[in-house]
Amino acid sequence: MATALHHLSDYDESSVPDASNMCFGIVVAEWNKEITGALLNGAVQTLEKHGALPENIHVKTVPGSFELIYGAQQLCKNDGFDAIIILGCVIRGETPHFDYICQGVTYGIARLNASQNIPVIYGLLTVNDLQQAKDRSGGKLGNKGDECAVDAIKMAKF
Q1: Amino acid 58: pLDDT
Q2: What are phi and psi of 66, to 5 degrees?
Q3: pLDDT for 49-88, tens place per residue?
Q4: Is 103:68 a contact under the CB 8 Å cutoff?
Q5: What whole-number distance in Å separates Cα of residue 90 and Cα of residue 82?
Q6: d(CA 142, CA 110)
Q7: CB atoms within 10 A of CB 13
């Protein structure tokens, strides 16, 4: 979570295990593609920075953030992944749609983490406006994709 006291891309590199023998699945939403594409780039670059081979990073797209649950569930069925990362962005609008999607995705990913043997890393930005999304996808607060990649490596090693 980005705050004035925590930059999403700042972490102790020495605390991250070697990922050279790990395989990752990433499910990314196509909705708000400018933002989710930046999150994806951050995640992939960080995984590779810590040794993950490009051929061991498998990216699947889904139409929107709600579909991240199904995508992650399908990847959990594949025995070859050490961790799954979901990446999406929901921007608050004028209707309660934001609340339903954010709550549904959060519950769905929590359920997968409780029921599967593969960690599923939560990379859903839930923001009030486009600027907040940009700030958290490579802007002044860092990139949530970086944070998710580090979390995936650490949880795969767990």
Answers
A1: 97
A2: -65, -35
A3: 999 999 999 999 999 999 999 999 999 998 799 999 999 9
A4: no
A5: 27
A6: 24
A7: 9
Residue 58 falls in the annotated catalytic set? no
Q: What residue type is 113 in one-letter code?
A: N
Indicate the average pLDDT of the chain: 92
- CA-closest candidate to residue 6, choices 123, 142, 155, 133: 142
- Write the CA distances from 28 to 39, 52, 123, integer angstroms: 9, 18, 9
Number of C-alpha atoms within 13 angstroms, CB side, residue 121? 27
In this prediction, residue 13 carries a pLDDT of 78
The phi, psi pair for 7, rounded to 5°, reads -90, 130
Q: Give the helix ranges, DSSP H, for the chain.
A: 33-49, 68-76, 97-115, 130-135, 144-157
Measured distance CA(110)–CA(136) in Å, rounded: 22
